[in-house]
Amino acid sequence: MPPTLYMVPSSPPVRAVQITAKALGLKLVEKHLDFQKRENLQPEFLKINPQHTVPTLVDDDGFILWDSHAINAYLVSKYGQSDSLYPQDLKKRAIVDQRLHFDSGVASVRASDVMLPIRRGEKTSLDDNDKHKLGEVYAFLDTFLDGHEWIADDVVTIADYSIYSTVSSSNVFIPIDPDKYPRLQAWFHKVEALPETEVSKPGLRIFAGRVQSRLKQLP
Asked: Which one of 3, 46, 98, 215 is most buried, counting C-beta atoms within 10 A?
């Protein structure tokens, strides 16, 4: 039986796992959770993941894992035909890990700081502080790409999938300025054109539609 993914399609971390699975040719059984109905807080799901977050993976042997970065590293290590997406080489893997930690500790946090007040209806417009927060993320990423075709190496890795999923969401709020961040813009379009990212685009459209409906003005 294929691994089971508990998920919400609009979630950026969920989309990162979908992209990785697609790149691996791995079929997932997707179980959608309705957070508005608090399905993630039901006892049966809390037994699986006491943090009640998505994505959550249950592998075919019953192994349970959550956090998209951990899930993607696990999937590549178990199901990958090669190590290109998550290299075994110590230094190459360290760079991928650094980029993943940047995504979880900086890029995703900044994006959530901007997104959540809008999704909750607490704000209906963006301010200069919002633009500054995401602008710094874009600037860092543009620097990471100096001398590299992809975000962590000269080949695609799971760091590209995770950061693309975050940036594609941030781009709904604060579009990437190609004059300020030309390397980031070029990278974004390259990742967007990868066949495996197609699986994430329905969820991104749901995300964009919900958020834009709450915004009175976009930058």
From this structure: 3
